[in-house]
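User: structure tokens for MoaD/ThiS family protein, please.
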Amino acid sequence: MNQAPVTEVLFFASLREAMQIGNLKLTLTKPVEVKDLILMIAGQSALFAAALTERELLVAINEQLASQQSMVQPGDTIALFPPVTGG
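Assistant: Done. Predicted tokens:
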């Protein structure tokens, strides 16, 4: 029996600190939009919900910048990070 590929979600910078983890591994059975994936993760705990819903997030799918409406395929690697500011 084939298992669905594992989708890895990586968290960076202040988002990583707020969530207190660096990554999550999920099993997706079908493609989902980034915004729905974020909601799925936020639903796992109050800590995740606060970290993911109270800030603007940048997204990369397989190391390519993407939008909240981009589709995540099972097995993709997703990176979530706060906007970078210069200084």
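User: Anything notable?

Assistant: The domain at 17-81 is CATH 3.10.20.30 (Ubiquitin-like (UB roll)).
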